[in-house]
Amino acid sequence: MSEFDVIKGFAFDMDGVLADTARFHTIAWRKIADEVGTTWTKELEEGLKGIDRMGSLALIISAGGHDDEYDQSAREALAEKKNTNYRELISTLTPDDILPGMQQFLDELKQQAIN
């Protein structure tokens, strides 16, 4: 067995892996929609799923008919504001928010000195 045949560590993306944070993305994007004057709809919310940050922002701005009102610099500032809102929201996560089975899996990794 070579050294490459043994798992030595794991890397996790928190979103949807360790905790369900989709609601926080929705809240943060909705704040941005409110700020730019776009009416929040279920269709808009659904349309944002799987889209990157700048693409999501473009959809929000376009849905409100505000395409000409925001240059690239303003869009980047709005995207950063969304991320700030999101980070504030995820700071409220507790161990109770860990998805089922993940704590046991993490504990098992720790017991096996896999980090």
Shape-level CATH architecture: Orthogonal Bundle
| CATH homology superfamily | Putative phosphatase, domain 2
Give the CA-based shape.
Answer: elongated
Helix count from the secondary structure assignment: 5
The string of secondary-structure elements, in order, is HHHHH
From the 3D structure, determine the CATH topology. DNA polymerase, domain 1
The low-confidence runs, each spanning 5 or more residues with pLDDT under 50, are none
Radius of gyration: 19 Å
Tell me what the structure shows.
Helix content is 53%, strand content 0%. With 115 residues, the chain is mainly alpha-helical. It has a single domain, classed as DNA polymerase, domain 1, CATH 1.10.150.240. Helix 1 (22-36) crosses helix 3, helix 1 (22-36) packs antiparallel against helix 4 and helix 3 crosses helix 4. The longest helix is centred in the C-terminal third of the chain and has 19 residues, at 72-90.
A few lines on this structure:
The chain has helices at residues 22-36, 42-47, 53-63, 72-90, 102-111. It is mostly helical.
